[in-house]
Amino acid sequence: MAAPSCRAPRLWVQVARQRMETPLTTVSKPFCSAAAASRPLDAQQLAERLRAQKQEQKTKKVQVPTNPVQQRVQELVRFTQQLQRVHPNVLAKALSRGIVHQDSDLVVINKPYGVPVHGGPGVQLCISDVLPILAKMLHGHKAEPLHLCHRLDKETTGVMVLAREKDMAHQVQELFRTRQVTKKYWAITVHVPVPSAGVVDVPITEKEAQGQQPHHKMALSPSYRMDNGKMVRVRTSRNAHVAVTQYRVLSSTVSSALLELQPVTGIKHQLRVHLSFGLDCPILGDHKYSDWNRLAPQKLSVGTLKKLGLPQSKARHIPLHLHARQLILPALGSRKEELSLVCKLPRYFVRSLSRLGLKMPSQDQNRDHEAGHLGAQ
Predict the structure, then answer these.
(1) Smallest Cα–Cα separation from 261: which of 249, 253, 251?
(2) Residues 129, 153, 291, 368: which is the catalytic one?
């Protein structure tokens, strides 16, 4: 039997000649290696190749920004991504370290940035998933799961109330539904509202925004509009919801402000919509509602970017600066007096205040300092 030939097919030789633009006679080695390379890899070879690629990615140097603000932004992005990949026990432990208050009925946590409250498409880990674990960490292995009393958006930080029993959770939810709970948020805005204190009373509905990427978002649905200098009542959308927000400026510069917001109603994205489209003062880091037609990173002025120490290309990493600062619950159950719950600001929020030249009210600054000191102990 003749030995199998190791010569290359004629077509392959012609292609090689065209590509290399050199005579075929200059190639002295047989083309067996090319044929071998075309064979499928076995399991061991494939595993070795994947292992080598993973090792190469690990050893690849990551550019570390020299600007401390950009370093902090990069840390926050990495932390948010890690929270979606951590084991549920790790998230539960992190929540237990941020407990603001607990008694026989309630557990109050300081919700971290970037963690969704409920599950959904693309959500790998959420607060509701770890409530059974958190309950066992706090009250022993026989403890019943904690129950959500309300919700906060994924990007919002601050006070979040949990109940030990389902019946208590329903009672607290009823307090929220009947607007008996006082809610106070803090937000850093890109512009300064005029007047410096007031009420935004404009209904909100969900609409489709036209643009390069058609999408749905919450929008104002005013009952009146201007027509030739006259105020004319318009037909209210059937899907519009009554939305009322009180606001006041706590500190301001020429181009930014620290606001205290008190939502009377609880419509989806109410604060963000009222500030951006009602007062023309979008929240810093609100990449969804800073522009109606576009889904794009928030466009900031040169002065604001300079204060933050960031180029516009990095603005997409700026987190939403909206914090649930305080909740005041009325007397409930065995508690005969109202309960005031205050959460200290996250570090990125405090640093942005400093960079933008905004100041916290002195009593709140002292309160945050004391909370941080107790937390360190």
Answers:
(1) 249
(2) 153
